[in-house]
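ENTRY TYPE: paired fold submission
RECORD: A
CONTENT: sequence, then structure tokens
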Amino acid sequence: MDERLKDLLHLYRNKFAQIDVERIIPFLRDTGLVSAEDVENVRRHPIPGQRIHTLLDILPAKGSQAFQTLCLALETTYPHLLTIMLIGASQRSPLYVSRQGEPEYPWLIQLTLNLFRKYNANLTIYF
């Protein structure tokens, strides 16, 4: 996973503490992102906040598709948290543009635009 995406997950770690991992695990498992062993490691923790933090610790090692898959899972289960994260990302730094000036994460741009349209956000988005 790209360092900027890891940083974004770390930055919103506390906001994600309200996520019930049982709502997103099926999507992550069905896409092959997490294994049965990963799920067991997550579920081992009795406190929900610890569960999501464990999952967030696992995801960066899962490769470049991990962040995208998490975003897709959040889009259907916790769209408000995804929106908060993407708004924050667009306001913080040029996450979406590579050093060559081309979109580095075209799927992330599309997802952000879709969420803004869906919720009629009156914000300026910086790509």
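RECORD: B
CONTENT: sequence, then structure tokens
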Amino acid sequence: MFKEETGMVKNATFIEDVSKHLKKDEKFIVACQSGRRSLMASNSLIAEGFTGVKDMGGGFTAWVECGQKAVLD
């Protein structure tokens, strides 16, 4: 999703972009800050045949609130 003046807009090349880096049977986690965008992204990927998709429910906000660490390199 991209933030535009009119609101959030779906990335038209999202599936194509992901497909360049991940195989449809590869396991991976989709996450965002609150969990809303990652849920939409996960659903889109699953609808396109990706089988190893896991959504981080609640996003990084919930992750940190549960006492987990988030380290950025």
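NOTES ON RECORD B: The helical segments are 14-19, 36-47, 59-65. The radius of gyration is 13 Å.
STATUS: closed
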